[in-house]
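Risk register update: the risk of archive-format incompatibility is retired. Evidence:
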Amino acid sequence: MKPEEFFGFNAGKVWQALNKSKKPLTINQIIKSTKLKRDDVLGALGWLGREGKIEVLKGKYIAFKLL
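Archived output:
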């Protein structure tokens, strides 16, 4: 599998989890929802961030939501 396919597939899973959620999700919540490994979630978030599809919310915890 090419890197673009690997990261793109994982980004799709993370996007779906964020889209389904009614609120922003933390990394741990995304891991639980997608069943992906932490490193895979971080790579997917980087992919989505580079594409301008997510917003990073900083507070007590860092959370993510779709734009």
